[in-house]
Amino acid sequence: MKRIVWLAVLAAFFLAASASAANDKYIFILKAIGNPYWQALKQGVEETGKKAGIDPILMYPVSDLAKEDDLNLCQAAITQKPRVIVMGPETTAIGIECFKQATAQGILVADMDATIPIELAKKSGVDLSYNLGADNTLIGQRVAEFVAAQFKGKKDNPKILVIEGAVGSPPGQDRPAGFQHRLRELLPNAEIVNSISAEWDRLRAMNIAADTLTRTPGLDAIFAANDVMALGAVEAVRAAGKKGQVMVIGVDGIPDARKAIAEGSMTASITQLPYFIGKRAVELAMDAAHGAPPGRKEVAPLLILTKDILAANKDPLLQYVR
Q1: Which H/E stretch holds residue 196?
Q2: CB–CB of 248/222 below 8 Å?
Q3: Cβ distance 164 to 196 under 8 Å?
Q4: What is the C-alpha separation between 273 and 145, in angstroms, rounded?
Q5: Please, are residues 262 and 306 in contact by the beta-carbon 8 Å criterion?
């Protein structure tokens, strides 16, 4: 009889341990990792998870343009009954819907791309464990300040092309909006010759830049909402024989952009340090799983990468550049 009771106790213990282990899963839903930004963020998640003794599960769509895949991935994540789902949603609407479904199943949720404000989530019945990422409006403002500083005292009416990200994507829209608003304050005579979406796509950005260079021979600068599109613009500028004559500024600080900056074909890139964001996403997810109250907001630091900054290699934030 004692043996039966003991076996029953052991069985209950192992069942409880199994359930606990399943509930300790941490799932991170990224955007398509064809983009080097998300490759760096993925690296931050994986390396930090390994150091912390957890095995984060990473999921991501095949393409940034496959917006419907986000919700499918979320639903697949929910079926695994993790403790926490951390997501960089493609759009606000998709993120809210994912988090509502996960919350209904008792799963903690968090935003690691600063797509959904804490207050907006709360109005939708979702308590985000945390909101992490860059302030995309601030990114645009910092780029405007950089551009204005380059033209100050030289030309007060530069002609500028703005290449936006995906329609409906907060980073793709907020960065250009922040840029244009701040530029009007600093250089009221500057002319935005066009502000148009290239859907995060390099080829589309190259074609937009090439067309603009043809229609506006006196173009002075191009601001693209990410480096992939900025590199497309770099190709168009080179093909037009205007390398060094047209400033090109991007966002993210990806390896190819840093190489282009070092060789002088791209002017600068502002990075929100995706590796650092991945690192903090894991740390904050573990805090949430261990009872940290919801509603934390953390803004990633920003660093403008120029040829001089990269050559000097002295800024402490460069340790997080991947």
Answers
A1: strand 191-197
A2: yes
A3: yes
A4: 19
A5: no
Cα angle value 265/310/203 (rounded, 5°): 35
Residue recorded with tokens 């957890």 = 54
Q: Which domains are seen in the chain, by residue range?
A: 2-134+274-301 (3.40.50.2300), 136-271 (3.40.50.2300)
Residues 6+ apart with CB under 8 A from 301: 272, 273, 276, 317
Q: Which two tokens stand for residue 239?
A: 């093909």
- pLDDT of the residue at 23: 54
Helix, strand or coil for residue 131? strand
Q: What is the pLDDT of residues 224-272, one digit of tens each?
A: 999 999 999 999 999 999 999 999 999 999 999 999 999 999 999 999 9
Closest residue by Cα to residue 54 from 282, 284, 290 = 282
pTM (predicted TM-score): 0.82
Query: What is the CB neighbour count within 10 angstroms for residue 169?
Result: 25
130-133: strand order across its sheet: 57-59, 26-29, 84-87, 108-111, 130-133, 296-299
137-146 exposure pattern, b = at least 16 Cβ within 10 A, e = fewer: bbbbbbbbeb
Residue 98 phi/psi, 5-degree rounding, is -60, -50
Cβ proximity of 202 and 142 under 8 Å? no
Give SS3 for 300: coil
Please give the structure tokens belonging to residue 43: 């690296």
- Report, in angstroms and rounded to the nearest whole number, the Rg of the chain calculated over CA atoms: 22
